[in-house]
Structure formats: C-alpha cells, structure tokens
Amino acid sequence: MIRLLLWVLGGTLLGGIVHLATVLVLPNLASQDAYSRLAQSAPVNAVAPLPPPSAQSSPIPFLDPAFAMAVCRYDLTDGPIKLSVPVSPAYTSVSFYTRSEVAYYAINDRAAGRRVIELDLMTTEQRNELPDNEEITAADRLIVESPSTTGLIVIKALAPEPSMLGMAANALAAARCQLQ
User: Fold this and answer.
1) What are the residues whose beta carbons fall under 8 Å from the beta carbon of 115, sequence distance 6 or more?
2) How far apart are CA 101 and CA 154, in angstroms?
3) What is the rounded distance in angstroms from the CA atom of residue 140 to the CA atom of residue 174?
4) Residue 111 in contact with residue 119, Cβ under 8 Å?
5) Three-state secondary structure call for residue 88
6) How far is CA 120 from CA 62, 142, 176, in A?
7) Strand (E) positions, the chain?
8) Span between the terminal Cα atoms of the chain, in Å
C-alpha cells in the first residue's frame, strides 16, 4: 500500500512540474502573439485603428465592443517616442505592453488630468542620456521607461452608447505615436 501511495505521489508531483513548465514556456514559443498579428495592419511607430471585434475574427482576443481601440507598435531602437492621445468625452485609457505581452504601465484620462494624454516613451539608457533640466518637473513632462525596445501601446476610448462609437473612434484618430 505504501509503495502504491509513493507512486501516486511521485506521478502527481511529476505531472505538476510538467504542467507548470508548460504553462510558463508556451507563451514564449507562440508565434501568433498580438504583436505578430498586428504586424500586417499596424505600422511601426504609428497609431492604427483596430476594427470592431466580431465573433468570427478579432486581432486581439477578448476585445470589448463598447470601446473604440487603436494600437501603436513601437520600436525604440532609433530613439524615444512621443505619444499624444486626445481625451474622449467618456473615458480614455492607454496601456503599454512589452513584445512578450507583459503590461508595464497604464494611464487613463482621469489620472492625466488634462484634455490630452502626452508622454515620452524611452528605454532606461535613453532616459539616462537626457540632460538634467531643473526647470522641467515631473508634472511638466511624463516619461515612461520601457523594459524592452519593442512592444505595443493599446489606446481605448469608451462609447457609453452604441451611437457614440463614431465619436470615440474620431478621438482616437487624432492620436499620435512618433519618434521625437
């Protein structure tokens, strides 16, 4: 009986290790991640609107149809990026993801406290190269440090009613993501 219990315990332990390793390794091996799927429709360092999600196709899974969405695939190898997103009437959010889909920063219109969300996106090395200017404070210039040189910026604008989806999409059409 003890021998059978040891075999069951060993099999369960081995199964748990294999399961955990699979869950941790598979996302890194996936070839159809969000960054790759958006490569066809979203140019690098430019804002591209996403089509409304449907049951048959969606460039990114689990999109909410109440939001107008746009993405910017960024590449910081040539320098920092200046992001400017006008605030929509209801709600606007900006989320930052690495190439491996790890979220590292997010801001919304209420946290920004302005009519336009403006920030500079750069790597730690690019941030260290900035000259120290004592007259510019953190309230004047929001700087976000990216842990990787490539990634995604997802911009969302809420349409509280379906008839307001066009207004939310127009707010995102004025968003800019470009090299400084």
Assistant:
1) 86, 87
2) 11
3) 22
4) no
5) coil
6) 28, 6, 12
7) 47-49, 67-75, 81-86, 92-98, 103-108, 116-123, 143-146, 150-158, 176-179
8) 71
Within the chain, where are the H helices?
2-29, 34-37, 109-112, 124-128, 165-173
Amino acid code (one letter) for 117:
I
- 135-173 residue pLDDT tens: 555 556 788 999 999 999 999 999 989 888 888 888 899
Domain 34-179 belongs in CATH node 2.60.40: yes
| Count of helix runs (H) and strand runs (E) in the chain | 5, 9
Which residues in 86-117 are b (16+ Cβ under 10 Å) and which e? bbbebbbbbbbbbbeeeeeeebebeebeeeeb
What SS3 state is found at 153? Answer: strand
Domain boundaries, the chain: 1-30, 34-179
- Tell me the residue type at 141: R
Phi/psi for 61 (5° steps) reads -70, 155
Structure tokens, 21: 């390793």
**What would the pLDDT profile of 46-83 be if each residue is shown by its tens digit?**
999 988 877 777 777 778 888 999 999 999 999 999 99
